[in-house]
Specification:
Aminopeptidase, alpha/beta, 2 domains, 6-stranded mixed sheet, about 240 residues, two-stranded antiparallel sheet
Amino acid sequence: MSDRLAIRSLFAACNRALHGRRLVWAFTALVAAGHLASAQAPPAPRFIVVLDAAHGGDDPGARLSTGQPEKAFTLALSVRLRSLLAARGIQVVTTRESDATVDLNHRAEIANHAYAQACLSLHASESGSGVHLFTSSLAHTQPTRFAAWKTAQSAWVPRSLALAGVLNSALLHAGMTVTLGRTPLLAVDSMTCPSVAIEIAPERGSGQTANAGLDDPGYQARVAEALAAALVEWRSDWGSGAHQP
């Protein structure tokens, strides 16, 4: 009898050991499967906006009617817009954070290195009325593996025009006057992302009297809010694949 009990005890121990090994094998397989799924999962979508505050440092830009240099206005707008976008969960890269000199080539390099989904080059002017949106005048070409400097934007012209359209709609919805145009843009022409130059001018009435000057805090806030709303819409369109390459 004792021999039978010993054999049964040994058999039970073997079963327990085998069951334990199966659990270990199953756990190991689950962990391996988890690592494999993680490795094969697509990266989370990235959406980055580059804000390029024009001028700076030894390049003051235009002298505004308030006596303020353009470089100060564009930097203040960049800071305000960056804050609005960050509050909406949009990652922002800026070409300058202070009164620093940044050459045009480096501005394009910053945008290209960020692999941005939108770049806004911010300017100010006392000429005209409202907001002027400019895209590159380069002719559209098919993308190539190695884009030529100073004409790299040519492959992105359709998406830059689409971005200008979204900005235009948001600004018009905010009750602003908008002018659209295409012109050579030295920094933008070297960018490999949807890019628009934005020039803010005073809001004028029919008699060309300024209803809101560049120093008007309310006007500045309306412009920044409209631009932020446009970029939120652009992010939504981009996420749906509407404007992706």
